[in-house]
Amino acid sequence: TTLLERIRQLDPQLNSFITVTADQALEQARAADTRRAAGDTGVLLGAPIAHKDLFCTKGVRTSCASKILDNFVSPYDATVVEKLAAAGTVSLGKLNMDEFAMGSASESSYYGAVKNPWDISRVPGGSSGGSAAAVAARLIPAATATDTGGSIRQPAALTGLTGIKPTYGRVSRWGMIAYASSLDQGGPLARTAEDCALLLGGMAGFDTKDSTSIDQPLDDYLAALAKPLTGLRIGLPQEYFGAGLDNRIADKVMAVVEELKKLGATIKEISLPNMQHAIPAYYVIAPAEASSNLSRFDGVRFGYRCENPTDLTDLYKRSRAEGFGAEVKRRIMVGTYALSAGYYDAYYLKAQKIRRLIKDDFSAAFKDVDLILGPTTPNLAWKLGEKNADPVSAYLEDIYTITANLAGIPGLSMPAGFIDGLPVGVQLLAPYFQEARLLNVAHQYQ
Ligand code: GLN
């Protein structure tokens, strides 16, 4: 069967795609064949992928899984989409996600929840749950995704995949619909580190259209995979193994540590003392930035507009009230509150100070170790709906991933086996711009 047939047969159960672009895919595949016949040996030529539905795609709906963008067709391609198309990839469509990437379960989509292919009564993680479910179910070999607080790494962990969040600024954010601009970063989700290296090589690089893009040469991610791990110094932060972590996950993580030791790594216990403040800081900063970014969805310029507005204020109010889902509204309200005069110092400024302390924790730790290792998530994939009544219980699931976004460092999650048939992930964190090292270690382990 072709991948398009597989999507048709299996995706009704998983709901990983929002839009399937069959005609465009066949056109791109034929173009790739022509290039191949003409002697083009590009590593991504003809590779089937799909994009998280917050990357703008020219002529194809880009919804962000929100009713407010249900009818939005972008007039241009995101840099990531453009670069991957130029490399000859074949896009099969747009992938489901949490609305505006706000969530950890992919349940907040306007188009319905995504299911975990390992157990369809459970969540695939989020917010890139559609990307993860589609790759885990072998509907596509790799997908684009984004990570603001863990949205590449956490779904990778919960679906048994490898995913990397690059250093902030390594992958262009141009055309990637913003959630929290100082934290958002695009990256690949795939089965192996090798596939991630291939896709990241096609996504990353300097872009003059993104003012936070960094003008630094790209490493050869593929060439780095083969490097032996002899002498690699790995730090295990004590804060990553404390209360709240499922013991069975801790055991799996330690089994990976034993394997890495056999491959030549040395282990050191370290401390990241400010980690306990990461969740409150993140859940002030991310909503604050979101409340500002999402002010552009006003029912006037693009997207959903309410019917029969009585005046301009009514148009703004009802378009946004009807267009945004509950979690998005919650974040807009929290963020607006945290930024308002009188509360700014107490919340937003305080959170920014904590952010600096977290960054400093990592800088201090990386003086003694090359990489930091721990669990990606404290728990296994949970049941659909289980955390809906209590948003904070879902926020707590981000404890191990959000620090990398606050500091801007790269992080990778790789599969580390199964517990009761459900995948477990191990996370590796590295200093700025050491994506190649992360992929190298994951590849050597795999
Ligand atoms: N779960 C986090 C949030 O809801 C992270 C989401 C993300 O990385 N996009 O904000």
From TrEMBL:
Record GO cellular component, one term: glutamyl-tRNA(Gln) amidotransferase complex
Keyword terms: ATP-binding, Ligase, Nucleotide-binding, Protein biosynthesis, Transferase
Keyword Ligase belongs to the record: yes
Gene3D superfamilies: Amidase signature (AS) domain
InterPro entries assigned: Amidase, Amidase_CS, Amidase_dom, AS_sf, GatA
Coiled coil segments of this chain: none
GO biological process terms held by the UniProt record: translation
UniProt keyword annotation of Protein biosynthesis present: yes
Highest taxon above the source species: Bacteria
GO molecular function annotations of the record: ATP binding; glutaminyl-tRNA synthase (glutamine-hydrolyzing) activity; transferase activity
Boundaries of every Amidase domain copy: 1-439
Group of enzyme by EC: ligase
The reaction(s) this protein catalyses: L-glutamyl-tRNA(Gln) + L-glutamine + ATP + H2O = L-glutaminyl-tRNA(Gln) + L-glutamate + ADP + phosphate + H(+)
EC number(s) reported in the record: 6.3.5.7
Stated family: Belongs to the amidase family. GatA subfamily.
Function: Allows the formation of correctly charged Gln-tRNA(Gln) through the transamidation of misacylated Glu-tRNA(Gln) in organisms which lack glutaminyl-tRNA synthetase. The reaction takes place in the presence of glutamine and ATP through an activated gamma-phospho-Glu-tRNA(Gln).
Identification of the protein by name: Glutamyl-tRNA(Gln) amidotransferase subunit A
Lineage: Bacteria, Pseudomonadati, Pseudomonadota, Gammaproteobacteria, Pseudomonadales
